[in-house]
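Subgroup meeting minutes
Present: P.N., E.W., G.H.
Scribe: E.W.

1. P.N. recapped why we're keeping a running log of single-chain structure predictions: easier to compare across weeks, and new members can see raw inputs and outputs side by side.
2. G.H. added today's entry (500 aa).
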Amino acid sequence: MSLRIYNTLTRQKELFEPCRPGRVGIYLCGPTVYKSPHIGHMVGPVIFDAIKRYLVYKGFEVTWVVNITDVDDKLIDAAARAGITMSEMAEKHTAEYFDALKSLGVDAIDHFPRASEHMPEIIAMCERLVETGAAYAAGGNVWFDVAKDADYGKLSNRKVEQQEAGLRELEGAGKRNPADFALWKAAKPGEPSWESPWGKGRPGWHIECSAMSTKILGETFDLHGGGMDLMFPHHENELAQSESCTGRPFVKYWMHNGLTRVRTKSNSGDWTVDDMHESSGNAIRVHALLSRHGPELIRYLLLSTHYRRPIEFSDDALVEARKGLTAFHRLFERVERLQGGKLDDATDMDRHSAEMMQGEHEKFARDVLASKMRWLESMDDDFNTAGAIGVMHQMATEINRFIEATSLAQEKQPELVTAVAAAAITLKRLGGVLGLFRAAPAATSGGDELLGKVMSLVITLRKDARASKNFALADAIRDGLTKIGVTLEDLQGETVWRKA
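Output recorded in log:
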């Protein structure tokens, strides 16, 4: 199955054919760094990190750009309230953003352009738009003339008369049309500014992204991503000004991820679900979330929903995500115990299946390989990470069933252990394409050597108690361990323990 992508511009899935064969350019709108990052700032990077990893897995050479908006009205206002400069405020929160990305394993971004470092390109684009008549200067400002763009509104499907709602620039000297938006803003006294042909000023929000993306990726590139809330006005205006400037298509495929929602319980006991936003006061800071739940769980949760659907944050959602993620790690631990070593030392099912196809366990090999094909089909269907994770759970179930059906815990037949390890490493590598399973969870079975020996003794005592039908003692041992944060799991032929 060939890769198909839902294109917001055409409102349909399209066969993916990059502008340049074998090479893909991606631009994702990054944060305006005036506050500490919240989880909504991580949704796009985690999704597109998985997208880039999959494209590389398929053999593409990918360049991924995420901008930093470090020149903006909100940033100026926040810095003034804090009594520091705009650049100091931007540096502080950019560092926090980078730390959050690193924690979540988002390490495939190639460029982090900053608006403050691209003033020549921004000014040059503004000049070109004025020269072509697509923009006009008035009172030190430069405005994009939406009336000159016959296609304006084609991304968001809004007509020009509907454009007033949602604009960041609601007033300014010399605007001809309420829907016209600022490319360059005349500086107010005391504000950060740069010299330009129209006097001292600073860029508008939208022109920053157009200048940076086209400089790095070219006048036409493949994928442009961002949240649904950016479709209008930001992406609509990016598209209009870029195509008016170059006369060429700006982006081939527009991709928009669903908004982040927070599910909370009111004092009356009713549940409410609201879009997460700074102005709503319900933004969940990334640092607190990672400290409480760990980065892999958050990444798993974000990828467990199709990127075009809203992502709901709640205690229940986190609990379910933890159950799902733990199921994989328990399987990996189980297979490692069987083979007596790390899965990294095993070969995958692609290489081992030829041998199994000749034996009595041919069905197991075929089932695992069929699951891998379904995983690929899910990812080729508009990067359906949710569907891919669902297939991975099916594969995990197949592996566990095979272990139990062949009684490997009691009789470790070398050739079957090798087959199970090959299946598990196949599963782990597929998860690795999504950026999962990069490290074992902190709270897993095991611990220091002495604790491990003590727990082996306790498990043996409980086993003996059950064998002698002293179930009260066996239950007391389990309950006592649970109270101190240790859980026991009875598998076929063995009992394993882990810190809760």
